[in-house]
Design a protein that fits this description.
The structure is a homodimer of 212-residue chains. Chain A has 212 residues and is mainly alpha-helical. Chain A has one domain: Tetracycline Repressor, domain 2 (Orthogonal Bundle), CATH 1.10.357. Chain A is built from eleven helices and no strands. The radius of gyration of chain A is 19 Å and the shape is elongated. The interface between A and B is large, with 37 and 37 residues. The first copy, chain A, binds a DNA duplex (30 and 30 nucleotides) through helix 4.
Chain lengths: 212, 212
DNA sequence: GTAGTGTGACTGAGCGCTCGTTCATAATTG
DNA sequence: CAATTATGAACGAGCGCTCAGTCACACTAC
């Protein structure tokens, strides 16, 4: 399995020292995320990214070949963080319906906390060159795959009614997207529901399908 | 109720003849949608919009004050078309669960056909000036409102178990977003499901909540 | 009719400026 | 010293938008 670090290293750099590259790029990402969230990718200039990182523009271009490189680094970093959060959530070994409910709760919590970051990916993935857009979309699939596995495990335990493979996959997508929905409709939903309300109601919704 | 036409007229123009303005703007929108879908808003130039419309750039700016004006016109037009589709779907008067199933089927059909347009709104709404972004989001809410009403009507008929107001609203949002999900995950979902499969499975999912 | 005048849609060269990127040079490190 | 890392002025392509001017047509005056 190619690690996320390996993906990052695919971006060419003038700088020889790999640790330095890793550190500098982390700095760049940290600075760029905020800027992209605040103003969007296209309205953020490379000079602003450099300034926010504490670099000269020249130095920025030692660690990155283009502005799009920065966007890709940002997207990768966000996915890594989301995936880490979800994996943490899936470590807990409850059983049956409780396991599913707990999984949803944790995942929606991640979405809640990473609101702006998830939104950013929805809005700016299209600005990536095709080669990297593909990678970002693969990340999205892998994330949904985690839910597929978790669901399959719960069902194999006999704690939920059987579902065919097709249904499991779709339920996993639904869970993923209903988490995202909180981020891109929050401006409206938050008028009517707290995140707790939202989790409770949606959990009921999802369990409904699985043999209420 | 302010009509969509009224919204459009809010945009200033140098041209006196209102019918001409309407016709020209329709031309502009038609040309711009394709370009925006193909290359995105930021990578489309005003010159390209003008050329695709068959206008000189000067003329374009007689009907529009800025490039963002064009984006707003495009977003409005798309929402109008979607809303028309949904309203058509809601005219059919079936009963109870069948009414709900039919509604979902029609709406998902609209999403399927307007795939690219819905995606465009997801990706470019953020590029609008705040004043207009607000309007576009209001359109989104109004659309969901149509589902709220339809659900309330069905429930009032006693054909579905009672739901409190809060749940109805959330189910309406879920239907809206699960329709959108087909558009922004289609690149993946279509490998496993036809649109028919998708509609069938998701309808089961949604009816599941409402007392399977 | 026709010459004169006014109106308003339309044209497109070009202005002013921003942006992503480069590169000659300087500083630092070992 | 040599190699590496860092600087920031300079470049030039490309952008949104303007505006002086053209042109077709309608209206008036005689």
């Amino acid at each position: 399995m190619p690690t996320a670090t390996a993906s990052k290293t695919d971006i060419e750099t003038q700088v020889k020292n790999p640790e330095l590259v890793a550190r500098r790029r982390r700095q760049i990402v940290d600075a760029a995320v905020s800027l992209f969230i605040e103003k969007g990718f296209h309205k953020t200039t490379t000079r602003q990214i450099a300034a926010a990182t504490g670099f000269s523009i020249g130095l920025l271009y030692e660690y990155v070949r283009s502005k799009e490189d920065v966007l890709y680094l940002v997207c990768e970093a966000i996915h890594q963080e989301v995936e880490r959060g979800v994996n943490d959530a899936l470590q807990r070994h409850e059983r049956g319906r409780e396991a599913l409910a707990a999984m949803i709760r944790e995942y929606f919590g991640v979405c809640h906390r990473m609101n702006d970051h998830i939104l950013l990916i929805y809005q700016e993935t299209q600005s990536l060159p095709p080669h990297w857009r593909k990678r970002v979309l693969e990340n999205e699939v892998r994330l949904t795959g985690l839910f597929v596995n978790a669901l399959a495990r719960i069902i194999a335990h006999g704690d939920l009614p059987n579902l065919n493979e097709q249904s499991i996959e779709l339920v996993a997508h639904n869970i993923t997207v209903l988490g995202h929905m909180w981020t891109f409709r929050r401006w409206f939903l938050a008028r009517h529901y707290s995140i707790e309300d939202y989790i409770t109601l949606q959990t009921g919704f999802i369990l409904g399908l699985l043999g209420g």
